What does this fold into?
Amino acid sequence: MPSALKEIGIKKAFKFFYTTLLMILYKFMIFPQMRTIFLRLCGAKIGKHTIISSDVKFINLYRTGFKGLTIGNYCFIADEAMFDLADKITLGDYVTVGWRSLIITHLNVGYKAHPLQKCFPPIAKPVFLDYGSFVGANVTILSGVTIGKCVFVAAGSVVTEDVAEYSLVAGVPARVIRKIDSEFLNI
It folds into this structure.
């Protein structure tokens, strides 16, 4: 039996096969409304008027499945965004995820015998993006991160820790550049 199969087991291997077939079917959903309905049928919770572009990727579905995905109302997910569903991902209402952005919920350096496993044990933690947050192009959000209400994450940033509401963050790692005037937003 191959090493990978020994480590994940038959049940997870079957779930991997099954979810891979779902992703093949997902590719045939040419309209955003079709993708939304398909994802809902697969267990995702997706709000009204949400647009999921055609080339959004979902990985590690064999862990949480689409049940680990919650997307609020009036959200937009751009092409080539990638969602790691090793743990839950939750997007509040009016969240935008930009082109080629990554939301990572886990870290695993490799097989159990990998020499770095002792220093970097596997982890999986949920990611939460609150109401009105904006994630620019090519942003990476790491596991366990909560992005607060009305946060603007500048393109190319790597978010390694929680971000307080009404902030503009940028950089690698992302740091607060300035606060956003919540009174100006009329929220």
About this structure: The longest strand covers residues 175-179. Residues 33 and 51 are 7 Å apart (CA to CA).
